[in-house]
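Quick board copy: two proteins, each given as sequence then tokens.
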Amino acid sequence: MFPNSTKKLYGRGWRPVLYIYGVAGLLVAAFFWYFFRERPETHPWSNEAEHALILRGREETAKHAGKQIGAAPVKELVLSGNMWCCCLMQWGTNIGWLFLMTWLPRYLLDVHQVPILERATMTMIPPLIGMIGMFCGGSLTDILGAKLGVKWGRRLPIAGSRVTAILAYVGCIGLSMLPAEHSLNTPWVFVGLFSIVAFSTDFGAAPTWAFSQDVGGRQVGAVLGWGNMWGNLGAAVAPPIYNYFLGENPTLSDWNTMFGICAASFLVSAFCALIIDASKPIAPEAD
């Protein structure tokens, strides 16, 4: 739509990147199609001993694996306060998180005058740290679920991770008040704080998905889709919110206001996380 402006900013580098993304997507799709099955015991590489191990303790549920699940429990989803808390939790999370994927490069340029190549490296680091958080959050919710039950085994990791994201954004506001020459008021320190936000966001993602499995049962697809839709709506309204508070030429005060908005969004998410109850199914298993 704006080839001249885009070329002035980024040269010719964006087309090869999209080619790489497209080819990578096709390779992942082919890999998934070839290697994955609906149930692990139906995989041709799975032997009889593995079949027995997989089915141990869940023979009853395995008997119903081929049965039709039925229509999505729309009424139950709409009337469930439990699910609305989950939806609002994901909505607030994405408003606070999407800043890292949209305005972070502009922030590093405007406030810290980071050159474009170094800026690209800095922007890459938080999502990579987030990947680590995903594994850590999944492991912890497994441990807590076994010790405390799924109710608190899901609540605590999600709420706790949102609190650390809040503290990171508050830290951004505090450090920005330091003199420009201060050793803590440097772009790499802020990248560290943004990495904490990314780690915290993904740390809570795994227990959020586990919550959907807990309450969804055989309707897990509908439950996951319903909650994720509201999370995506949060991501959809985030850019207009950022634009409103930052404007065309944001000042340091505008950036700090934006950090406050992101922290408040995570606060909403943390509050909702303390209300959700993974021990309450969305619909009877018989359905």
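And the next:
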Amino acid sequence: MVTVNPAPAAATPSAWDFASELRAIDDAQLRRTRRVIESYDGVRLRVGGRDMLGFCSNDYLGLAQHPALAEAAREGAQRWGAGATASPLVCGHSLAHEQLEQDLARLVGMPRALYFYAGFPANTGLVPALAGRGDAVFSDALNHACLIDGARLSRAELQVYGHCDAADLARRLAASSARRKLIVSDAVFSMDGDIAPLRELLRLAERHDAMLLIDDAHGFGVLGPGGAGSAAEFDLRSPRLLYMATLGKAAGVAGAFVAGSEDAIEYLMQRTRSYIFATAAPPLVAHTLRTSLRLIAEEQWRRDHLRELVRLLRQQARLPAGWRLGESTTPVQPLLIGGNEAALSAMQQLWERGLWVPAIRPPTVPAGSARLRLSLSAAHTVQDLQRLLQALAHIA
């Protein structure tokens, strides 16, 4: 008797077909590329053996390679070592962290501040600490992903209002019967560079028994007297306000903080899971940030120069039909192009000319609004800007 082996069954497609998923990303021209930086010198970067002029970082004041910060980091490492060893509520909260929080509160003019190791987990922890089931979170349509994810994690009802549309927000607040109402908004929007109507948002919070949490990642250090940020720029003062900002952009180091009333910050320290259950940032980072805050407050020329660069860019840019600069007065200057392919092509042509300007595509921005994100820094010279403008005119 001869035994015949049956033909092998057709392979069942796996739900974990990463290669197919990556092809779909490529087909939509949405794959992101991570480049290896070999050295930094302010806005001058060495990448793959090439010297590039960068308009890509968030180092708005040009502090990230400041010699005083390097020296402060060395001092901090000598005194505190490399790591914090535990969460802040165990034994990770050093004198350096305590002094930094006091400095932060003083700079932004609020009673108390709480320092986090990074900005994304700060917001994904703060929003669920403030709102939960039975509550409602009111979120601007163009908020950063960390605020969106924080709202989802909270399990509160999520209401998305039109971008910077205070009238839409007012209608939604008035119609809501939620136990607690939390308004969350970027102060300076990271991909558009425009500023939220902060005064109106705070008025609505006070009128509707709500709290307002603003994320000033791209305004702290740049706006307000002494670089105190967007809340100080518009003189916002209220127990209804919680002010959050990051310290890896204009401050040039790392981390984030939230500031507010004594009771609000104590409550957040007790309830924010991303603060309670995460190892603290190394004390040497907190020590370094104290020097950064001093430079932010004292060196007004950096903000003055930055404003002049923004003015020159908007005054002198010569763009083809279909391209336009977004309505921004901040160092984030979006050059809207539209299609993914066209944005990638413009980025590549600038790259070939030694200029690093990132193309931003969905889902970071809405479909059809792909752009070059021109990020200006006090480390740029007027000559650097002229070089960018000439290259844009040529490729256009």
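Board note added afterward: Residues 67-298 form a domain with the Aspartate Aminotransferase; domain 2 fold (CATH 3.40.640.10).
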